[in-house]
Amino acid sequence: MTREQSKATKQAMQRYGTKQWARNPVERSWRAAIEQGVDYYNDPLRAQLFELRYVQNRTEEDVIERLHIGRTTYKKAQQDLLSTIAVYAAQRGAL
Fold it and tell me: Which of 40, 64, 85, 90 stands 20 to 30 A from 48 (CA)?
């Protein structure tokens, strides 16, 4: 995944759940990709990481502390989410 793709994916994840988001087809595609990416893992850690970091906009340090995980585990789970969501977004034409 390129830096641009990673940045676009992170931005979409940060906009997820905001009131004004998902009003146009591209944003709806991102929303579907994000939901499919989070569901793909069927993993509470990744779901909680997504919720805390991107929906609640908590800091990386706060997420690590709340989930009682190390930075390496955090980075791995975040990268898994980013790459999976990017694939689903590309399939939908959003990325």
Answer: 90
What is the model's pTM? 0.87
Q: Which helix (H) or strand (E) holds 15?
A: helix 3-15
Amino acid at 53: R
Residue 59 Rama label (left phi>0; alpha psi -120 to 50; beta): beta
Q: Inter-axis angle of helices 3-15 and 71-91, to 10 degrees?
A: 90
